[in-house]
Amino acid sequence: MWRVTAEVDLAKSAGSGAQDVRAETNMAARKFYAQRNTYLTGFCLFLSLVLTRVFYILLDLIHAQEEYAKLKNEAVKSPKADQTKQIEELQKKLAATEAKVKDYDILKKQAEQNAKEYDRLATEFNSKTGNVSDKRKD
């Protein structure tokens, strides 16, 4: 484009006073074609950059969809395994809790028996010594 423009300027400045109409039209056509080719080349370069970027974006999308499908399949298959693991863990926790409840009940019974035995011995001691306990004064 620059070359054609320079040739047109050179022809105008160096030429004779009266130029041929065909030569002038030919120069204008050459300038138009040069400009058109420059714009087409620029647009093709821009389009190639855009298409390359779109291609890589589509590749990323395809890879993401494949990973999503894999994870979805694993999620469908694995809940059974996860559920069995969770069931086993919950059963272990339940057994531990039942053991704690059993230990608590045993401890509660022992405390009740100790309290009853203490009351019995205190009553027996008071009856033998003759001490009468008045709870309001104590």
TrEMBL record:
Keyword Repressor included in the entry's annotation: no
InterPro entries: BAP29/BAP31, BAP29/BAP31_N, Bap31/Bap29_C
Pfam families documented for this protein: Bap31, Bap31_Bap29_C
Stretches assigned to coiled coil: 80-128
Cellular component, GO, one term: endoplasmic reticulum membrane
Biological process annotations from GO: endoplasmic reticulum to Golgi vesicle-mediated transport; intracellular protein transport; protein localization to endoplasmic reticulum exit site
Keyword terms, alphabetized: Coiled coil, Endoplasmic reticulum, ER-Golgi transport, Membrane, Protein transport, Transmembrane, Transmembrane helix, Transport
Domain Bap31/Bap29 cytoplasmic coiled-coil per the UniProt entry, residue ranges: 85-137
Keyword Endoplasmic reticulum in annotation: yes
Primary site of residence: endoplasmic reticulum
Highest taxon above the source species: Eukaryota
Localization (cell): Endoplasmic reticulum membrane
Gene3D superfamilies: 1.20.5.110
Membrane topology value: Multi-pass membrane protein
Domain BAP29/BAP31 transmembrane: 3-70
Spans through the membrane: 39-62
Role of this protein: May play a role in anterograde transport of membrane proteins from the endoplasmic reticulum to the Golgi.
Family of this protein: Belongs to the BCAP29/BCAP31 family.
Protein name in the entry: Endoplasmic reticulum transmembrane protein
The species this protein was found in: Pycnoporus cinnabarinus
